Amino acid sequence: MVPFFARLFGYLAAFFLTATMMVTVADVFLRTFFGYPMRGVLELVELGLACTIFLALPAVFLRDEHLVVDVIDHLAKKPVVRLLDLAGAIVSLVVLAVMLWQMVPLARTMHEFGDVTSDLSLPKIWYWVPVLLGLFA
């Protein structure tokens, strides 16, 4: 079950990264050759990056592929390294839980007020959905 979710979140993050890159390339192409910039590209790139980063988080944690500085790993014995890995996992869990706890009220407030972006009038809750989903997962 874990590999399925890791793969799913990885593919979703890759999709949004690809879409973000394609929107950026299209904007640069249209701006350079036709002098016509795409409207709302900044908002689409912001949304794409939020989706990419926060949907990649669960994939990275589930695959255990996060960046690790292993200075002590070569010097310490295996039980100490396992204890340090456990401590790192617990600290990560606490930090992500606090982030989720603090972000849910903000997202709820934006949704209740009906906040939208300035150019495309996208509901700002769309920015919060991948963030909250990624932190929860």
Which helices and strands, and how do they pair?
Blueprint: H1 2-34, H2 41-63, H3 78-113, H4 125-136
Helix pairs in contact: 1-2, 2-4, 3-4
What does this structure look like?
It is a single chain. With 137 residues, the protein is mainly α. It is 76% helix and 0% strand. α1 (2-34) packs antiparallel against α2 and α2 packs parallel to α4 (125-136). The model has no long low-confidence stretch (mean pLDDT 92).
Give short descriptive properties of this protein:
137 residues; mainly alpha; 4 helices; 76% helix; globular
Describe this structure in a few short sentences.
The chain is an all-alpha fold. Helix content is 76%, strand content 0%. It is globular, with a radius of gyration of 19 Å.
Helix-strand category: mainly alpha
Please tally the β strands and state the result. 0
CA gyration radius, whole angstroms: 19 Å
End-to-end Cα distance, whole Å, is: 13 Å
Range of helix content: over 70%
Strand content: under 5%
**Number of continuous helical runs:** 4
> What oligomeric assembly is this protein in?
single chain
Q: How can the largest sheet be summarized? A: none
Q: List low-confidence stretches.
A: none
> What number is the mean pLDDT?
92
Using the alpha-carbon principal axes, give the shape.
Answer: globular
Q: What is the string of helix and strand elements?
A: HHHH
